[in-house]
Specification:
Blueprint lengths: L4 E6 L2 H9 L8 E4 L7 E4 L1 H4 L9 H7 L4 E3 L3 H18 L3 E5 L2 E5 L9 H16 L3 E6 L2 H11 L4 E3 L5 H5 L12 H9 L5 H6 L2 H8 L1 H10 L15 E12 L2 H21 L2 E12 L4 E11 L2 H15 L6 E13 L14 H14 L24
């Protein structure tokens, strides 16, 4: 069956929500984030982008580039609420929806061509989102997810584009290599040194050459450059929480060991959290003593997927819970109030400067396994214990 995939992208989403809250911001260079020394730009209006401002840029540099910029701290609760409203609207209209992030959606309309005009349907959804919520979106329709995602980037802001079936490769051909999803700074630099400035040039390279240079990613790159992508739209489901627990073979009151266990579990949970492009707004710690008395404490926190932030809260909860006169048989950490958003949401606080480190760590873990990167305090953790871990 021939596929029809729509990609919807909310234009400058965080700024758009801020403008709904305060109409005086419309048409002005608005930056969501902090201008302080360690502050980072989470999002910016198109007016600010004209000065060279972009996401993940240090706030101080953004202020230098755009002295008249209006800095807004950011209201994640509002962003999450509007994202949920868009999700509900799209799910009512569409047969199969994947929420890729807080402001991006894939919709599979395959098989619907005989009943509706897929492109016209996409334009109707675009209109509904604006009339119902006041948010501009860009939409793109093609035969696969990669081409639709790239196309919507070309259509922004508040645009629309249709790439007819059979025209995927020709559409991709003139685009800069950086337009390809998952092509980072280092990869694009390497490709340019190989004389590959455009997607079309990449498509001309023999598959075996790309596999020799980039390994298994070479075939992925070749397919995408040639407009080929068979990945499916994954239905959007809500996971409310995730947790890990360790039950010890021998009861213990070793505080150092227990802290290391918490650090290890938090690291594994945040890795999974970032893979799902989600953040957590609540963390809890559970202790079960030798007499099976179980105690739990939790705290609501600013939404984050950062190891060091969640680690700090987890250890604080542990200190409040732990009765040093009793032995412990089980300890656990749980993250809840999960919402879609990925690492970009962490840019609201100064810890955002850590996000490149986390992305590098995650790449290593994906390639070499979870234990390939660990906090130094947990490397010597090899003790006589039997861990029973689960995620829900």
């Amino acid at each position: 069956m021939e596929r029809s995939i729509v990609h919807i992208d909310l234009d400058s989403f965080f700024v758009a929500v801020e403008c709904l809250k305060d109409a005086s911001l419309r048409g002005k260079p608005v930056i969501v984030g902090s201008s302080k020394d360690r502050g980072v730009v989470a999002a910016c209006s198109y007016e600010a982008r004209k000065f060279g401002v972009h996401s993940a840029m240090p706030g101080r540099m953004a202020r230098q580039l755009c002295p008249d910029a209006i800095f807004v701290r950011g209201d994640y609760e509002a962003y999450s609420r509007y994202s949920d409203l868009v999700t509900e609207l799209v799910q009512i209209e569409a047969p199969l929806v994947e929420k890729a992030s807080i402001d991006e959606f894939y919709i599979d309309l395959s098989g619907m061509e005989r009943f509706i005009g897929c492109y016209q349907w996409a334009l109707e959804v675009k209109r509904h989102i604006y009339t119902e919520l006041g948010l501009h979106v860009s939409v793109a329709l093609s035969s696969n997810k990669t081409v639709s995602k790239v196309a919507v980037g070309e259509a922004k802001p508040n645009g629309k584009i249709y790439v007819p079936r059979g025209m995927e490769k020709s559409f991709m051909k003139p685009l800069r290599i950086e337009k390809m999803p998952m092509i980072g700074e280092k990869t694009s630099h390497l490709l340019r040194t190989m004389g590959v400035p455009t997607v079309g040039k990449l498509a001309e390279i023999p598959l075996k050459v790309l596999e020799r240079v980039f390994g298994k990613n070479g075939s992925w790159m070749w397919d995408r450059a040639n407009g080929i992508d068979n990945s499916t739209v994954v239905p959007y489901t809500i996971q409310k929480s995730m947790s890990k627990e360790s039950t010890f073979e021998k009861d213990t009151a070793d505080v150092s060991f227990l802290r290391q266990e918490i650090i290890r579990m938090v690291g594994e949970l945040t890795f999974e959290l970032r893979k799902m492009k989600e953040t957590s707004g609540c963390i809890s710690v559970k202790i079960r003593y030798a007499d099976f008395d179980t105690q739990t404490k939790q705290i609501s926190i600013p939404y984050t997927a950062s190891d060091h932030v969640l680690r700090r809260y987890a250890l604080e909860l542990f200190e409040k819970l732990f009765n040093r006169r009793l032995m412990i048989r089980l300890i656990g950490v749980r993250l809840s109030k999960l919402v879609c958003g990925g690492m970009q949401l962490n840019l609201f606080d100064n810890s955002a400067v850590m996000s490149p480190l986390y992305m590098a760590m995650d790449k290593i873990r994906i390639r070499y396994g979870l234990s390939s990167v660990q906090p130094s305090s947990t490397i010597t953790l090899k003790r006589n214990l039997q861990s029973i871990e689960y995620q829900q």
